[in-house]
Amino acid sequence: MMNHERKYKKKLFKQKKTIGIWATLGAPCLAEIIANVGFDWILFDCEHGTNSPLNLIDQLNAVKSRNREIACLVRVGSNDIVEIKRVLDIGVDGIMIPMISNRADAEAAVKYCSYPPDGMRGVSGICRASDYGLRNDYLKQASKEICILVQVENLDGLKNLKEIIDTEGVDGVFIGPSDLAASMGKLGSSSDKTVEDEIRKALELIIRKNKPAGIITLSNQDGIERFRQGFNFVAIAHDAHFISKELHILKSKFSNHLEKI
């Protein structure tokens, strides 16, 4: 049976620093490797990459078979009631909803994640999240256990950040640097100073409002710097990027040595 003690949400509320990784490749064996390493959380990305509700189950089972302490989060493709319902029925520790631009978006996301009377989530007592009906308290406990993260990643979201943060039911705010840069006319330049300035201002507001703040980085050094700035949950690697980069470095070094033989 599934582990129903959702420790990750408790860590977030306590403002603990947690280290995660972005998983996009849809491979259960890779999910096992990540679980063995011992990250605090793994986010399965269904917005970009090859993940889907169908292959999520195999990956979730692979992770929990190796490491029951790691939190399994899923980013859905959009703020869509059906997609969110399907992911939650599979049974995850947390869900991330992208492109939240205002209070209405945030309120909708929370409602889609919550059962009536508080929300609009469709009810199925027989799903993986409820141990296929064997867990009698699931419907009552689900809202307390699921960590709801909203992703702010455009100028409208920054403009309306205070009302997004204040939306009841939002557990944490994740800043999306790439889409934010694109919305500022800096496509492909998320490290641009003007983009970084906006990220800093957003972080300051999130901290003042006592909400956990998250972001993704692609290097150890950048990850450490983000924690120093005040972010609480940081993805320090992206599976496809990490594998591609490390293989390229390995091959280049080997080729250089080969030329000297």
Would you write up a description of this structure?
This protein has an eight-stranded parallel β-barrel with strand order 1-2-3-4-5-6-7-8, surrounded by nine helices. Helix 2 links the parallel strand 1 and strand 2. It has twelve helices and eight strands. The model has no long low-confidence stretch (mean pLDDT 94). The chain is α/β, with parallel strands linked by helices and 261 residues long. The chain is globular and about 70 Å long. The N and C termini lie far apart (56 Å).
In short, what is this structure?
By secondary structure, this protein is of the alpha/beta class.
Keywords, separated by commas or semicolons:
261 residues, TIM Barrel, 8-stranded parallel β-barrel
Any chance you could write out the topology, listing elements then pairs?
Blueprint (H helix, E strand, L loop, with lengths): L6 H7 L4 E6 L4 H10 L3 E5 L7 H14 L4 E5 L5 H10 L3 E4 L5 H11 L24 H8 L1 E6 L2 H5 L1 H5 L6 E4 L1 H7 L9 H16 L4 E4 L3 H10 L3 E6 H21 L2
Parallel strand pairs: 1-2, 1-8, 2-3, 3-4, 4-5, 5-6, 6-7, 7-8
Helix pairs in contact: 2-3, 4-5
